[in-house]
Design brief:
By secondary structure, this protein is of the alpha+beta class. It is built from 22 helices and eleven strands. The strands form two sheets. A six-stranded mixed beta sheet has the order 1-2-6-3-5-4, with helices on both faces. β1 and β2 form a beta hairpin.
Length: 562
C-alpha cells in the first residue's frame, strides 16, 4: 500500500516527530544512551547514532516512497502461501557502506547540558525548595536545578468531591478520568498525541472518583506548552462518543479476563472483607461481574456531569522539579489553574478505624495453573504512631526486600513453594488506617504447605525478631533506596505533592529516616508484636484447587520451584 499510495507529508511528519521524541528521551537518559551508543558502535562507529538522527530529520515523503519501491517488493515478502516464479525479480542488497568514510568528517552538534551534581538528602532538597500559594487552594512547590538535557518534571494533583456527593458516582468518575486524554474541545485524540510528539515530551493525564493527576517530562523550552496541553485536557475534555464506546469495549474485555484471574478473585474477596464499604460508596471493590454491569449501564452524559460538577483546582498541589524559570512557572500555573474552581464542595474521604475478624478462604479459579494468596490485617494507626518507623523497617525485612527478605528466603528459595512472595505496609497520614499485607503466587498443589510456611515465618518474626546484622543491612538497603528515589526527579516531584497534600515538607522524610536509623532489633520486634498477630491476618487463596485434589488422588507429585 505504501508503494501504491505514498504517505502524505502529514503522516511522515507525524512519524518523524514520534521517533525524534523517542530519540530525545533516550539521549536524556544516561543508561539508555550508553546502551544505544554501544549498539551503534557494534555496527561500526558510535557516531552513526547521530548520523541516523540527522538523516531522520531530513527524510521527505519522496524518500519514504522511494525506499518502499526499492525494498518493499512483493518478491521480498514471506507469506504463508508461496508460489515461486521462473525469473523472480529481487532487490539487490547494496554493498556494505564505508563506515569510516561516512563518519570521517562528522561534526557533532552542541553538547547536551550535563546538569549539576545534586544532593538528594532531605535537608539539601528543602534548602532549595520554594513554596507558594499561587491561588486559594493551589500549593505550588518548585525545585529548580540544572539537569541533563535541560529536562524538567511536573506533577499536578487535584482533589474533589465529598462522601455524600460521590455516592453512586464511582463508575462515572473512573470513566471521566480515563477519557481525559481522548480528546478536548480544541483537539482530537490524535492531535493530542501529535502535539506530545512535537514537544518531545512524556505526558500522562488521568483521574478517579475523587482526584485527578497529570505528569510531564519535557525540555525547559517546552514546559509551558506542555502545561497548557495538560490544562486543556483537565479543564475542557470533549468526551467524544466514539472514544467513550471504545473505552467501554476495552474495559469490558479487561473485565472478562479478570473474571477467571486468581489474583483478582483473591484481592477482591479480601478487600471486601477488610473494607466493607456499601456498594454505593465509590471505594467499594466490585467483582468483575458487578463492574461489567456498571460499565454496560454507564452513560456519556454521566461523565460530562461528573466533570462539570467535581473537577476543579480548588484543592490542588503542583510540583515542578528540574531546569525551569521559577518566576515564569508561578505566573503560568496561576494563569492556567488559578480561576478554576470546583462547582461542588470538597471534603476528603475518611476511613474509620476497624479490626475485622480473621477469615481464611479458598476460592476456585478453574483451569488456572497458578494460584494466588492474598493476606492482610488492618491496624488502627496513622503514620505518626510511635510504632510506624519500626513497622516500616520490619516489613522491609519480612517481605519488602524481595529476594533477601524472610518470606522470600524461606518460601521461594528454601522450600521452592512460590514464584513470587512478599509483603507491604502502609499507614494513612490522616486516619487510623494502617495495613499489613502479603502475597504469593504458587502452584495450587502447594497451597497447604505455602500457608504453613507463611504462618511459621510471620510467627518467627514476632517471636524472635531480627538479628543485629539483619537490622543493620536492612537499614542500609532501605535508606539507600530512599536516596535513590529522591535523586529521580519524577519520584521527587510525586513525593513533594504528596507531602504538600499531607500538610508537610520533606523534613518529615528526614525525621522518619533518623528514627529508622536509630532502631534496634528489640524495638522492631516489640513494635511488630504490638501491632501484628498471626491469628488476626486474614488469608484468601484462589486457584484450581478442585482439579489439584483430583490429580493428587492419582498420586501425581506436587510441583516445586527451582
Amino acid at each position: 500500500e505504501v508503494i501504491s499510495r505514498p504517505p502524505t507529508a502529514e503522516e511522515v511528519e507525524r512519524a518523524r516527530a514520534d521517533r525524534l521524541k523517542d530519540w530525545e528521551s533516550m539521549i536524556r537518559n544516561s543508561q539508555r544512551a550508553a546502551i544505544e551508543l554501544s549498539e551503534w558502535q557494534a555496527l561500526g562507529d558510535w557516531r552513526l547514532m547521530f548520523v541516523h538522527r540527522d538523516r531522520l530529520e531530513a527524510v521527505t515523503t519522496e524518500d519514504v516512497a522511494r525506499a518502499a519501491r526499492t525494498f518493499l517488493r512483493p518478491e521480498n515478502r514471506t507469506v504463508g502461501l508461496y508460489t515461486p516464479t521462473k525469473e523472480a525479480q529481487r532487490a539487490e542488497i547494496p554493498d556494505r557502506p564505508d563506515v569510516a568514510a561516512i563518519v570521517r568528517d562528522y561534526k557533532g552538534r552542541e553538547a547536551m547540558a550535563m546538569g549539576e551534581s545534586f544532593d538528594p538528602s532531605p535537608s539539601a532538597i528543602e534548602a532549595r525548595t520554594e513554596r507558594q500559594k499561587v491561588a486559594p487552594g493551589i500549593d505550588l512547590i518548585l525545585v529548580p536545578k540544572k539537569t541533563r538535557g535541560a529536562t524538567v518534571q511536573a506533577t499536578v494533583n487535584l482533589h474533589f468531591g465529598d462522601e455524600k456527593g460521590l455516592q453512586g458516582r464511582g463508575t462515572a468518575g473512573e470513566f471521566a478520568g480515563n477519557m481525559l486524554m481522548r480528546g478536548t474541545q480544541s483537539r482530537t485524540r490524535q492531535q493530542i498525541q501529535d502535539e506530545i510528539a512535537k514537544l518531545k515530551a512524556r505526558i500522562s493525564v488521568g483521574g478517579s472518583y475523587d482526584s485527578a493527576s497529570a505528569s510531564i517530562e519535557a525540555k525547559r523550552e517546552n514546559l509551558a506548552a506542555s502545561l497548557r496541553l495538560v490544562a486543556d485536557m483537565l479543564r475542557t475534555p470533549a468526551f467524544p462518543e466514539s472514544e467513550f464506546e471504545l473505552l467501554r469495549q476495552e474495559a469490558l474485555a479487561s473485565l472478562e479476563d479478570a473474571k477467571s484471574d486468581p489474583q483478582q478473585k483473591a484481592a477482591t474477596a479480601l478487600t471486601q472483607h477488610l473494607y466493607p464499604w456499601p456498594e454505593s460508596d465509590p471505594r467499594y471493590v466490585e467483582t468483575p461481574d458487578q463492574s461489567i454491569a456498571r460499565v454496560n449501564a454507564a452513560k456519556l452524559d454521566e461523565l460530562r456531569r461528573f466533570h462539570s460538577e467535581f473537577y476543579g483546582a480548588s484543592e490542588a498541589e503542583i510540583a515542578i522539579v528540574g531546569d525551569f524559570d521559577p518566576a515564569e512557572a508561578r505566573k503560568l500555573v496561576a494563569e492556567l489553574f488559578g480561576g478554576w474552581k470546583s462547582a461542588k464542595p470538597f471534603a476528603r474521604l475518611t476511613t474509620p478505624a476497624a479490626s475485622p475478624a480473621m477469615v481464611e478462604r479458598k476460592i476456585e479459579a478453574p483451569d488456572k495453573e497458578m494460584a494466588t494468596m492474598m493476606a492482610g490485617q488492618r491496624l488502627s494507626m496513622r503514620d505518626d504512631h510511635a510504632d510506624y518507623p519500626a513497622l516500616v523497617l520490619g516489613n522491609f525485612l519480612t517481605g519488602g526486600g524481595f529476594l533477601n527478605s524472610r518470606l522470600a528466603t524461606r518460601i521461594r528459595q528454601k522450600d521452592g513453594l512460590s514464584y513470587g512472595v512478599g509483603s507491604y505496609f502502609r499507614a494513612s497520614a490522616f486516619d487510623l488506617d494502617g495495613y499489613f499485607g502479603s502475597y504469593a503466587i504458587f502452584a495450587p498443589q502447594n497451597s497447604d504447605r505455602l500457608l504453613t510456611a507463611y504462618r511459621e515465618e510471620i510467627a518467627r518474626v514476632l517471636d524472635k525478631g531480627f538479628t543485629v546484622e539483619e537490622i543493620e543491612e536492612g537499614k542500609k538497603g532501605w535508606l539507600q533506596g530512599r536516596q535513590v528515589s529522591r535523586a529521580n526527579d519524577p519520584e521527587l516531584a510525586r513525593t513533594l505533592v504528596t507531602r504538600s497534600w499531607e500538610g508537610r515538607s520533606i523534613k518529615w522524610d528526614a525525621d522518619l529516616e533518623a528514627k529508622i536509623a536509630a532502631l534496634t532489633p528489640e524495638m522492631v520486634r516489640d513494635a511488630m508484636r504490638r501491632q501484628l498477630s498471626v491469628d488476626r491476618i486474614s488469608i484468601v487463596q484462589s486457584g484450581d484447587f478442585a482439579n489439584v485434589r483430583a490429580k493428587l488422588e492419582t498420586g501425581e507429585p506436587a510441583m516445586t520451584i527451582k
